[in-house]
Structure formats: C-alpha cells, structure tokens
From TrEMBL:
Name listed for the protein in its UniProt record: Isopropylmalate dehydrogenase-like domain-containing protein
Top-level division of the source organism's lineage: Eukaryota
Domain Isopropylmalate dehydrogenase-like: 8-333
Assembly and oligomerization: Heterooligomer of catalytic and regulatory subunits.
Homology family: Belongs to the universal ribosomal protein uL18 family.
C-alpha cells in the first residue's frame, strides 16, 4: 500500500459561530481520516488596500493556490470605504456559479420527504451588477446585465454537473416573457448548451410557475439553472423545503476549477460562543468540497454519519428542536463514523 500526500485546502473559519462549527468540521474530518491539511485564514482587522476589504491578499492567494477551500460565515463590519467580504471573494476569485444541493434529510420531518434537487445560480451579473443610479429626483434606475459569456459559462456548468452526477433533467428558470432581451439571451445560451447534451432532458420554466410547482410538488425538479436574483430567492425557498439554513450546504465554482464551499447561513451573533450552533450546513459544505476533489468514499462516510445522527434524533441542536450542544452533536457524529 502507498499513501498519497495530503491535499492542502484553505479554511476560513469566519465570524460569530464560524470558529465553533469549523472546529467541528476539523474534528470530524480528522476522525474520518480525510487526507486534507487545512490552511487557515482569518478576516483581517484592518482594510487591506490590495483587496479594498478586510480580506487579506494572502487569503485570496491561498484559495488561488490551493484551488479548493471551505468558508464559514463572515459578518461584514459596518463602515465606509471597503467592499463586503463575500463580494470581494466572488469578484476576486471569479466565483461564477453557486451550487446548492437540497435533499430531504431522512428522519427530520418537513412537509415533504422526497426533495432531491440542485439549484445552480449565476453569481456574477444580472440584477446584482451594482449599477444603480438616480435619473432625476424620484426616479431611480437599476441595470440588469446579462452576457452571453456568463450565461454560457453557467449553463455549461449546469449540464456538466447534471451529467457528472447522474441527473436527468435541467430546467432553466426565467421570465423571458417580460424580460425578453435579458432572460431571452440567458435562455438562448441554455438551449445552445442543451444541444450538446442530448442525454439530458432540457426544459424552460417561468419563475412564478416554478415557485408554485416547488411549493406544491418539489419532486418535479432535478437540476435548476438561473440568473442571479432568481437563484438567490429560489435557493432559499428550496432550503426552506428541507428544514432551513442550518442544514443547507453550497459550493461556489470559480474560473479555472476553483471550488469554495460555504454554509449559506450567517454568523448567528445571537448564539455565537455558546456552543449551540448546528455545524451540519458547514459539514455538508465540506462534503461537497470532498466530492469536488473526487474523495467520494470519505464524502459518503461523513454524509452518512451526519444523516444517521440527525435521523436517530438522540443528539440534535436547538434549531432542530433538540437540546444538544455543538460539541455533543459533533461527538455523536464521530461515534457514527
Ligand atoms: P444568520 O443566518 O446569521 O441568523 C439567522 C437566524 O438563524 C439566527 O436566529 C441564528 O441563530 C440562526 N442560525 C443561523 N445559522 C445557524 C446554525 N448553524 N445553527 C443554529 N442556528 C443558526 O442571519 P443574520 O442574523 O441575518 O446575519 C448575521 C450576520 O451574518 C450579518 O453580519 C450578515 O451580514 C452575515 N451573513 C453572512 C453570510 C455569509 O458569510 N455567507 C450569509 C448571511 C449573513
């Protein structure tokens, strides 16, 4: 037998509950003997002029070098003259797609027990281009930018993802009946890419109808791809279907194969430092990172242990109606490994 060298991955524990849930991930990864060495980076206390934000140049370089990382929540300090941390990461690392798998957790009862879908959100343009201004007093304007380049890129990613994960259908979500030029171009790009994947069923669903269908019967969907704002809203709707933000992982895909996985929740200042946070979202984000690295054995093992612990119901954190601390829950997962 031979042992291969460990993979170096960047870890941003983040703010608030971030360090507690990051500790839990490290402990569980150690227990599962995941061959990863973490390179930890913290949010700075001063603005780094090279990034114009509290994120240091060194931490961005770390993700660029390692091409893979895990990120806890980051609270952007209020003040002037700097960029938000999440925006800095997105722009500097060109994180063009946000991928959020949502599946029902066995044993944790919600309205549906058959959700199994993935939302893929365009992450760089659309309504989030930051181009807003006042035309005259009482009239403001916001520009929605859709480009062929960014639309093709996210569509390519969605079909590639569907194929790689054995999924059968990609639905493009849009409002092209009203936003004829912008969403029209987005759809045109999706159609072009769909032609290259005849084995995958392609459909187009208008966003309002999509919301109705998701709430009525989420099992109708498989992979969904959409422009930025729709993705922001629909991905939270889907998180709600399976039990909320404490459970849902996500992964940001960047140019050149960069993957930065992150929990979608914030820093939860109300429970920070109290050993009460649920580490599941960050852990499952770590699992997506392992899948990106094709460490499927380790990913399966950790995912199974997390799901079993939640299903068993003996150790659950307060957000899931239990009374376990973060460390009790973490230990229970380690026992399931
Ligand atoms: P939040 O997600 O931090 O908290 C909302 C509610 O959910 C709180 O009651 C919190 O206790 C609970 N919660 C969240 N995660 C939990 C977990 N893992 N376990 C148990 N309970 C959990 O949202 P907020 O209060 O609106 O934001 C707080 C800060 O986080 C703000 O500074 C915001 O900018 C930042 N934020 C960062 C990110 C990110 O880094 N991706 C995302 C959202 C918010």
């Amino acid at each position: 037998a031979f042992s291969s060298a460990p993979i170096t991955a960047t870890l941003f524990p983040g703010d608030g509950i971030g360090p507690e849930i990051a500790e839990s991930v490290k402990q569980i990864f150690r227990e599962a003997e995941v061959p990863i060495e973490w390179e930890e980076h913290y949010v700075g206390t001063e603005i780094d002029p090279r990034t114009q934000s509290f994120l240091t140049w060194e931490s961005l370089e770390s993700v660029r070098r390692n091409r893979v990382g895990l990120k806890g929540p980051m609270a952007t300090p209020i003040g002037k003259g700097h960029r938000s941390l999440n925006l800095t990461l997105r722009k500097e690392l060109n994180l063009y797609a946000n991928v959020r798998p949502c599946y029902s957790l066995p044993g944790y009862k919600t309205r549906y027990d058959d959700v199994n879908l993935v939302t893929i959100r365009e992450n760089t343009e659309g309504e989030y281009s930051g181009l807003e201004h006042q035309v005259v007093r009482g009239v403001v304007e916001s520009l929605k930018i859709i480009t062929r380049q960014a639309s093709l890129r996210v569509a390519e990613y969605a079909f590639h993802y569907a194929k790689a994960h054995g999924r059968e259908r990609v639905s493009a979500i849009h409002k092209a009946n009203i936003m004829q030029k912008t969403d029209g171009l987005f759809l045109k790009c999706c159609r072009e890419v769909a032609e290259k994947y005849p084995e995958i069923t392609y459909e187009e669903v208008v966003i309002d109808n999509c919301c109705m269908m998701l709430v009525k019967n989420p099992a109708l969907f498989d992979v969904l791809v959409m422009p930025n704002l729709y993705g922001d809203i629909i991905s939270d709707l889907c998180a709600g279907l399976i039990g909320g933000l404490g459970l849902t992982p996500s992964c940001n895909i960047g140019e050149g194969g960069i993957a930065l996985a992150e929990a979608v929740h914030g820093s939860a200042p109300d429970i920070a430092g109290k050993n009460l946070a649920n580490p599941t979202a960050l852990l499952l984000s770590g699992v997506s990172m392992l899948r990106h690295l094709e460490l499927h054995d380790k990913a399966d093992r950790i995912q199974k242990a997390v799901l079993e612990t939640i299903a068993e119901g003996k150790y659950r954190t307060a957000d899931l109606g239990g009374s376990s601390t973060t460390s009790d829950f973490t230990r229970a997962i380690c026992d399931h490994l």
